[in-house]
Structures are given as C-alpha cells and as structure tokens.
Amino acid sequence: MKKALLFINGDSPKAIPNLSGYDLIACTDGAFHYLKQLKFPLDKLDFISGDFDSHKIEEEIIQQAQNYQFEIIETPDQNKTDFHKALEIIIEKGFDNIDVFGGSGGEQDHFLGNLSVAFAFKDKVNLHFFDEYSSYYFIPKKFTISDVKGKMISLMPFPIAKNIETKGLKWPLYKEDLILGERIGTRNIAENKDVTIKYKKGDLLIFVGN
C-alpha cells in the first residue's frame, strides 16, 4: 500500500523522522523553511506546494528545486488552506495513506483549521498526525490499536460520539456518549497491549501519547 509523508507549517519536528517506507514526500511552502534548518535531504522531496505568500516564488526555492529535482506546485486558491490543497495533490497522485508532521503547534487557529481539514477528508484518506507529544487521527466505528500499554490515550468527540465501548483502558467506557462541551475522554491510560474502541454514531478523534 503506497504511503505519503507531508510536512505542513506548524511546529517543526525535533528531528527528521524515519523516511523509509514512504513512496512520496512533500511539504508546504511554510514547512520548507524548517526542513532546511533540520538539514532535510532535499533529494528525497517530491514536491513543495503552496501560495508562496506572493506572486513570485522565492529565488532560493527555485534554485533548490533545480538542484534537487523536486516539483514546485503553486496553489493560489485562497478559499482553501495550503494543507487542504497539498492533500488534494497527494490524493490525485494516487495515495490514500498520509502521515503528517507540523499539524499542531504554532498559531492555534491553524491547528483547529488542520483538524477541520482532516475531518473533511476522513472518509477519503487515512491521515495520521505526529507531533512531539502524540499521534492523533480520526478512527472508524470499530478500531483496535496495538502496542500501547502504558501510553496516554485520549478520545475527543467531533463533536459527538455515541454508544462508545472500550477495552484495555484504565477507565473503560460502557455504551457511553462523549459530547464536546459536556464530556470528553482525555488522559486515559492503556492498561493492555491492545486497546479496542467501538461506537455507534458520530466521529471520534484519538490521541496516543508518545
């Protein structure tokens, strides 16, 4: 199954993640600058996309693209975020499994905007976000995660998830509802190696602590 890696303009990862196993690697124009600071191997980059915040692409980016043979894709549509537009490009290239770095941190409206984009794409693509503290993603109605014993597990309704049952958590749920603004399921602990989650209606975002 083909897999893509996308860097967007939130908090930079502390180090370059393991790049093996990815068939495509891309970034938005804002993320390109922190990748340079991390000394990212630009020969691994397939494309950089974005509105580039002006009508003229920086000469430095053009030079790097010529040197390392990655594609520059201008996406000037101001009705969509750079993240949204980068996902559309990756999906058009035939990928439906995408890992994302830089989705959180920075300005919080960007973080919430990234979650909104992920919600819009949740039935089209498997999106997994990674940051310094956790990985997070929307989960299907029946879901099992493995090798998580001792890790923090948080369940966030988006905005409602009904009739939730969990197995393997310190504080289990038995056919209970989570509703944003009323009750959420943060800071639980995985007591088993495998954790199983089922729910009937709504949408659920899981955070798995590092």
From TrEMBL:
Gene3D superfamilies: Thiamin pyrophosphokinase, catalytic domain. Coiled coil: none annotated. Signal peptide: none annotated. Pfam families: TPK_B1_binding (PF04265), TPK_catalytic (PF04263). CDD domains: TPK. Its EC number is 2.7.6.2. Residues 141-205 form the Thiamin pyrophosphokinase thiamin-binding domain. This is Thiamine diphosphokinase. The lineage of its organism: Bacteria, Pseudomonadati, Bacteroidota, Flavobacteriia, Flavobacteriales.
